[in-house]
Amino acid sequence: MAVAGRRGSDDDFTPAILERIAQAIGSSFDAAHGGFGSGQKFPHPEAIDFALLWAERRRDPAWQEVVLRSLVGMAQGALLDPVTGGFFRHCATRDWRQPCTEKLLLTQAGLLRNYLEAWQIFRRDELRKVAQKVLAYVEHTLRDPVGGGWFAAQEANDAWYALPERLRADRKPPRVELVVEARPLAAAISAFLKAGAVLRDETATRRALEATRFLVDAMVVRGRGVYHSAAGGERQILGLLGDTVFALRALLHVVQYTGDRACLEVAEDLVGVVLAKESARYGGFFDARDDSPHFAQARRRHETLQENGLAAEALLRAGWLFARPELHAVAERALRHFAADHPLFGYHAAEYGRALDLHFHPPLLLLVAGDAADPRTAALLEVARRSWVPSKLVLPLDPVHDGARLERHGIVASGATARAHVRVGEREIACVHSPEALADAIAAAAAQG
């Protein structure tokens, strides 16, 4: 849906917008079966993501129920393939029956993140098991063994999926579409990195890094953005806002989970690409491809609330990680520009809501300074990465290689023992040296909301 933003007054741009978005999501929640809406049921991972955040912010059992009933309902219904794993695209009925049997990588990535974070919070074993089923499906069915990424989809085949397990083995499975698409690839990188940290799954982390290499080498063009898709050595459609933002988010996750400096440099380049799409007059970001002047129709500029929300959130995260406050101002302009539009989108405004939350609630920022080869640094980073706090950010900083970044964050570079600076926004609340002390500091910050 392409909607030009209607600039609201300053009175519109307050944390009360978050309340209204939460109300829209809550009012569409299906209390009987979980999920959102009353007809065809799509999983909507972004709405569950917002519900997880809101449950933690409000300590509200009703929002915990939104999350749990939705995740349990999907897993126990027909949306989840019980034989080979993986979630189908949607179901025809509100009680999660009659699935459309296409399987999308983007759906797997979003729900994998949901189930992992819900398991971190609720510690219900069935949530972890569903996450592991999704991991196994993506690994065994969608992985590109040559390029190292994952293909975008497996086509629908109702008749094959209706077969019992013993008969499926004798039939050819539904075809996997041998196309890699930037958005689902980037989303899967982020989800697999989280799985690697949360489940201590080294294979998941390794697969995420292999996919990252493909993304950077085959799909990113410095200074111009990201190709939408790649297949058979051919790349299509360069520079769309959503593709660039998804790739930027994934690279920021790679930096947080691995400390990869090369990815950090690519992420900074993509920040520049996103900034170049800003409307100088109104704020917000245009969506225009950048590969050929012959596609005049495709170069029309549209502003969309969902993708502007994603772009604003990515710039806010980059601003905190890179100590670049000017990015916060650009993100705020985009969010203000759409302040009057969110009621048009109902629960589809969830991603915009996540960006608003990050704007109005400075994140927990964990800056871990120490020699990357020091086991004490590794121990601090494991605690930082495995914990769950809404919008938490982690940045490894090696005094030998990251002197300029340490200075940007106001940290004196030294060869002293590894330490973690625990901050809420710009305010430092603790500087600790042991994993136990870091866990306590994270818990204390989370308790303060």
Question: Could you walk me through the main structural features you see in this protein, from its secondary elements to its overall organization?
Answer:
With 449 residues, this protein is of the alpha+beta class. The chain folds into two domains: 10-362, Alpha/alpha barrel (Glycosyltransferase); 363-449, Glutaredoxin. The chain is built from 17 helices and 13 strands. The strands form four sheets. Strands 6, 7, 8 and 9 form a four-stranded antiparallel beta sheet that branches. Strands 11-10-12-13 form a four-stranded mixed beta sheet, sandwiched between helices. Strand 8 and strand 9 form a beta hairpin. It is globular and about 65 Å long. The two termini are 34 Å apart. The model is unreliable at 1-5 and 296-300 (pLDDT under 50).
How does the SSE layout of this entry go?
Blueprint: H1 16-27, H2 45-58, H3 61-76, E1 90-91, E2 99-100, E3 103-104, H4 105-122, H5 125-142, E4 153-154, H6 158-161, H7 165-168, E5 176-177, E6 180-181, H8 182-198, H9 202-219, E7 220-221, E8 225-231, E9 234-238, H10 241-258, H11 261-276, H12 305-322, H13 325-337, H14 350-360, E10 364-369, H15 375-386, E11 393-397, H16 403-408, E12 419-424, E13 427-432, H17 435-447
Parallel strand pairs: 10-11
Antiparallel strand pairs: 1-2, 3-4, 4-5, 6-8, 7-8, 8-9, 10-12, 12-13
Helix pairs in contact: 1-14, 2-3, 2-4, 2-14, 4-5, 4-8, 8-9, 8-10, 9-10, 10-11, 10-12, 12-13, 12-14, 13-14, 15-17
